[in-house]
Structure prediction request, 234 residues.
Amino acid sequence: MSRIRTLCLLGVVLGTAGCIIDGDDDGAFIADWQVLFLGNELTTCKAAGTPTVTMEVARRGGERFTESFDCALERGRSRVVPPGTYDVTMTLENSLGEAVSGISGTFDVTHRGLVDLEIIRFQVQSFVLTWSINKAGFPVKCADVGATTVHLVTQRGQDGPITYPFPCSANRGVTQAIPLDTYSVYPQLLDANGRVLDSKRAMTVDAGETERDANNQLVVKRAVLKPPVTFELP
Prediction:
């Protein structure tokens, strides 16, 4: 029986125990996965903006290789591996190629067989923005003022800014999965011609901030921007 050790990567503890399944098949690592926003909100690879899962396999004293899989397939299998002790890391990447969640484990493979990592639950962080519009101090709808789009502009360290567009009428937007880090963020309201109708002052958000759950365990908080944004128009 193999043994997997779950680690804390990117501030999130993930994964379950693995095992070797006896059989005549060639040795290989097999993983199934799901993607969840923090708070155990099940989502899809597309909605999370996480197209790629990588599997890095390192045999102690031997070779190292990396396999890449389409996240939407929800399953991946490595090449054949001979007996030995292996360190295996599964990583979920967003569309920018940034690692946003992961799990590591150590396996002793003593014979031919399939090493099943079981279901890996990648938990990912994202910004959540909600908004409303006031005109001359009174609530209005997007169509009333010709607003079509809300942008959330984010910047991490020295990286360039990233803009996430949302339909104004949705009144809520969720970004793709992001690394746990500190960001400067600001929302904008735009019309159909791309003209900025209102822009809010940038705020600093720690996307790795923790809190204690019902079991008094430290967990990463969902990056919900509070208070909700109110765009003010004259």
User: Anything to note?
Assistant: The chain has two domains: 8-124, 127-233. Helices lie at 45-48. Residues 8-124 form a domain with the Immunoglobulin-like fold (CATH 2.60.40.1120). The chain has a mean pLDDT of 87.
